[in-house]
Amino acid sequence: MYFVICEDNSEEGLWLQDKLKKWAYKRNVVVETARYESAEQFWFSYEEKQKIDAIFLDIQLPDEDGMTLARKLRARKNPVPILFVTGIDDYMAEGYDVQAIHYLLKPVSEEKLEACLERIMRAADTEEPFVILQTDADAVRVLQRDIVTVEVFAHQCVYTTKERSYTVLESLKEAQEKLQSGWFVLAYRGILVNLFHVRSISREKVCLTDGREVPVSRRMYGELNQAFIRFYREGRA
What is the pTM of this model? Predict the structure, then answer.
């Protein structure tokens, strides 16, 4: 999970960051945090395509206040869960206007914070399936719909999306166990294709939405073709 903290008081920001990591350790989930001391810092690094699981906003920020930042996010159709963390309660009514999920008054109760995190995690569990890919550099959360192919090389699997590839130290069997059943099908020995990204199938090759072509095993063609027809007939796309 990826959390953003906008808090101009570095001591309070670090405290919150520490509590998020401790909660993640207890719940055995991978959490990445980013901390900013102003709205300007946040906007400088903001990427609309990046998935943020929650943003913790102090309302009293030095340049642009947290409520204005929240309104801008909503204007961009960003549904990120917003939690206001502040020392004043004057803006509580406005918090409802931007669909904030909670209003945490300082000093923040650890119990209330954890209750909010549990709520966020339950909501995330109802979202589209994803996988956590542990690479040499870091752990990355990737939506399964975005994965185009998974290919095995020796003892490593390469997960390829339209944007980039991730190399993970695992077997193809381990990859299959965590991927959504019915979405990923073997096209060739050591190559899984995501049916979301298949344009067409012939006896020789699979044409993918990213422009690549993957060879098709004669032995696997029948099962692959039936899975493709069944996938779209059932409206899974």
Answer: 0.53
Pair type for strands 191-194 and 184-188: antiparallel
pLDDT exceeds cutoff 90 at 231:
no
The upper half-sphere exposure of residue 141, i.e. CA atoms within 13 Å in the direction of its Cβ, equals: 18
- Assess contact for 42 and 35: CB atoms under 8 A: no
- CA angle 145-140-56, nearest 5°? 100
Burial class (CB in 10 A: 0-12, 13-18, 19+), 66: buried
The CA R_g of the chain, rounded to the nearest whole Å, is: 22
Note the pLDDT tens digit of each residue in 45-67: 887 757 788 999 998 888 888 88
Q: From the CB of residue 68, how many other CB atoms can be counted at a distance below 10 Å?
A: 14
Place of tokens 């808090």: 7
Largest CA distance in the chain: 68
Of the chain, the end-to-end C-alpha distance in Å amounts to 25
Cis peptide before 107 (omega within 30 of 0): yes
Q: Phi and psi at residue 169, in whole multiples of 5°?
A: -80, 95
Q: Are 199 and 232 in contact (CB under 8 A)?
A: no
